[in-house]
Amino acid sequence: MSDYVLLTDSSADLTAELVAELGVEVLPLSFTVQGKTYHNYPDNRDMDPKDFYAMLRSGEMATTAAVNVADYTSALEPLLESGKDVLVLAFSSGLSSTYQASVLAAEELREKYPDRKIYTVDTLCASLGQGLLVYLAVQEQRKGRSIEEVRDWAEETKLNLCHQFTVDDLHFLKRGGRISATTAVVGSMLQIKPVLHVDNEGRLINIGKARGRQASLKALVDKMEKTVTEEGRKTVFISHGDCRKDAVTVADMVRERFGTQDIRINFVGPVIGAHSGPGTLALFYLGTER
């Protein structure tokens, strides 16, 4: 069996420690704030997420740009040169053109490295939902499965990777065109918190609302109860927009309700956080359907 490596992008929001544990490669995406462009590395070497969210809270605007074909080529080529095949698990095409860039880069490199295998999967996932799919794919790889078998597993499993989340500040969703200005103003006045998910096309969809922050956090766990599988109870990922206390609250609810022991928590990185804002809280698990 040939040697192969999994490559994802930093919108997966994996910690540096988990990246090292899994042995995966991560392509850093970029974001711009205060007129300067930074890269979102798993070890946060360019900017600490707490500093990023402090800037957003102070009124600074952040923008993001999709990775280009050349960036993907630069990440893939050293791996191919070293004799490894590569399976790319990319950020949802419903939210970014990152996946398309990976497809074009792979097409170019297949001609240059005809003996190497390069496969790309549109995860239709985001944040630690994408991260959880990568984590589980590595577990399959460690069972001795071939690159094709893990690729097929990822394709078969991705629509069972459930994304439930809420936000604290509706104005970030308004700015991104996810809700209207009126909804943002009225919702903020009435403390209405949306409950959203990522659908089967990998897009961000509003599926409900709750009155107040604590109710919205409970709503995430209530949604999980309706779809979580036995396998999904084992490992749960939670990401947050600099609101770790709320993430721990949700983790405690999950642990109490489902007996989950393996719960990983990390920041929503700047690439997604620029659009979801401070106070975002997201819950990811394997379920019967999204």
Tell me how many strands there are.
13
Low-confidence stretches: none
Main β-sheet description:
6 strands, mixed
Q: What gyration radius follows from the Cα positions, in whole Å?
A: 19 Å
Mean pLDDT value = 93
Strand content: 25-35%
Helical proportion? Answer: 40-55%
Contiguous helical run count? 11
Question: What would your notes on this structure say?
Answer:
- The protein has 290 residues and is an alpha/beta fold.
- The protein is 42% helix and 25% strand.
- The strands form three sheets. Strands 10-9-8-13-11-12 form a six-stranded mixed sheet, sandwiched between helices.
- Helix 5 packs antiparallel against helix 6.
- The longest helix has 16 residues, at 127-142.
- The two termini are 34 Å apart.
- The mean pLDDT is 93.
Outline of the structure:
The protein is an alpha/beta fold and 290 residues long. It contains eleven helices and 13 strands.
